């Protein structure tokens, strides 16, 4: 008999560059307000998600600072925070990581983001070609890991030089916060097999995801290692499939062809990310071929860089699609939806129960045991059902 699938670990997303209800439109948009991010974090902390991904980039709030802000307002939530090699020294990042892990009592997860835009990287003072960035990252994490695990490091490398580097205060987690990473190029696959605990893929069709997982497993096996796997997806979940697809159409209903063309041109000119190229190839900027696999919709990627696909459908439908990814080895889902506060509730209420995920703290009782139904919130309270009095 096949082994039973392991439980899925669900994380949510903090939209630190802003949020909204319509892609490609300012209608009902929300600015990047730290208190709004805190609202989302407090909600997902109660709803059953294990953590949040905080993105990095020139358009985003700085991820370590924002994580510290949110950690002070949550209890259980873990924070997947980006380290971009080259924007600071490995010694400085080791101190940042250790301090945040200590302040949050062991709630730090580290997301390695090597970067996929030469233009943005140049603004951060990084002038390395695509594969060379991974050579640089290998040396960076040699020093970073030595510090995080042992408290000292020395390296006379081609890119990184550290002489008697020290980290006095170790992180709370033992031996260290885990390393997450995503990348689709050959160089990225080899880096993942050697250095990370969890490999992340964007939401490609299952066959393509399975092919990448196999490559990462082989890369890790060559080094006597094992890697676990996660997937980054948007979700449009409604009570019926028809409602969900109608919501997908609504999400891009105010998105013009000119806006799509401008976004796709930026992706082509400014990104050397293989993963981004694979996202674009799913739809090539066309509205008429957005369901790229059953219930996998690429409409988000018409204007959003990075993760550009959503699972669309009823709870049962979306759960069935997720179980296909589980069967390939996916054990972690990093989820999001527009707008992120409301959709965090919707996914938690409709989809998470399909996987046996409930709120971490039992809700307070709202009666002394009588069966009741919601009565609209009036001053008389809820309504006792006939069955309760019989």
TrEMBL record:
- One Pfam family of this chain: Bac_luciferase
| Catalytic activity entry | an alkanesulfonate + FMNH2 + O2 = an aldehyde + FMN + sulfite + H2O + 2 H(+)
Q: SUPFAM superfamilies per the record?
A: Bacterial luciferase-like (SSF51679)
Question: Would you kindly state one Gene Ontology biological process term found in this protein's UniProt entry?
Answer: alkanesulfonate catabolic process
Keywords per UniProt: Flavoprotein, FMN, Monooxygenase, Oxidoreductase
Q: Main EC class of this protein? A: oxidoreductase
Ranges for domain Luciferase-like come to 10-331
GO MF: alkanesulfonate monooxygenase activity
What EC number(s) is this enzyme filed under? Answer: 1.14.14.5
Record-linked NCBIfam families: alk_sulf_monoox, PRK00719.1
HAMAP family for this protein: Alkanesulf_monooxygen (MF_01229)
Functionally, this protein is described as follows:
Catalyzes the desulfonation of aliphatic sulfonates.
Protein family per UniProt: Belongs to the SsuD family.
- Spell out the protein name for this chain: Alkanesulfonate monooxygenase
């Amino acid at each position: 008999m096949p082994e039973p699938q392991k439980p899925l670990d669900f994380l949510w997303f903090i939209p630190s560059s802003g949020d909204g209800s319509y892609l490609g439109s300012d209608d009902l948009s929300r600015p990047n307000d730290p208190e709004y991010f805190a609202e989302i974090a407090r909600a997902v902390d109660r709803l059953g998600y294990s953590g949040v991904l905080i993105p990095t980039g020139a358009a985003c709030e700085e991820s370590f600072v924002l994580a510290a802000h949110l950690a002070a307002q949550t209890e259980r939530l873990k924070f997947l925070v980006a380290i971009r090699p080259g924007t600071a020294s490995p010694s400085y990042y080791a101190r940042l990581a250790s301090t945040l892990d200590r302040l949050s009592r062991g709630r730090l997860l580290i997301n390695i983001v090597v970067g996929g835009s030469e233009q943005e990287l140049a603004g951060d003072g990084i002038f390395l070609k695509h594969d060379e960035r991974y050579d640089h990252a290998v040396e960076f994490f040699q020093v970073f890991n030595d510090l995080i695990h042992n408290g000292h490091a020395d390296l006379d490398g081609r890119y990184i030089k550290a002489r008697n580097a020290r980290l006095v205060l170790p992180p709370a987690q033992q031996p260290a916060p885990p390393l997450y990473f995503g990348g689709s190029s050959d160089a990225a696959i080899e880096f993942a097999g050697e250095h990370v605990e969890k490999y992340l893929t964007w939401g490609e069709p299952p066959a393509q995801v399975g092919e990448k997982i196999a490559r990462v497993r082989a890369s890790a096996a060559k080094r006597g290692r094992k890697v676990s796997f996660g997937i980054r997806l948007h979700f449009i979940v409604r009570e019926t499939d028809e409602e969900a697809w109608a919501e997908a159409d609504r999400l891009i209903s105010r998105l013009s062809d000119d806006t799509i063309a401008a976004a796709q041109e930026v992706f082509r000119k400014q990104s050397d990310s293989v993963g981004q190229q694979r996202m674009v190839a799913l739809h090539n900027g066309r509205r008429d071929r957005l369901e790229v696999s059953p219930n996998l919709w690429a409409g988000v990627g018409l204007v959003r860089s990075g993760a550009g696909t959503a699972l669309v459908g009823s709870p049962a439908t979306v759960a069935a699609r997720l179980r296909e990814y589980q069967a390939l080895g996916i054990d972690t889902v990093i989820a999001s939806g527009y707008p992120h506060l409301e959709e965090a509730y919707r996914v938690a209420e409709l989809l998470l129960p399909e996987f046996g995920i409930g709120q971490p703290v039992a809700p307070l009782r709202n009666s002394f045991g009588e069966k009741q139904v919601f009565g609209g919130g009036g001053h008389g309270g809820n309504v006792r059902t006939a069955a309760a009095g019989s």
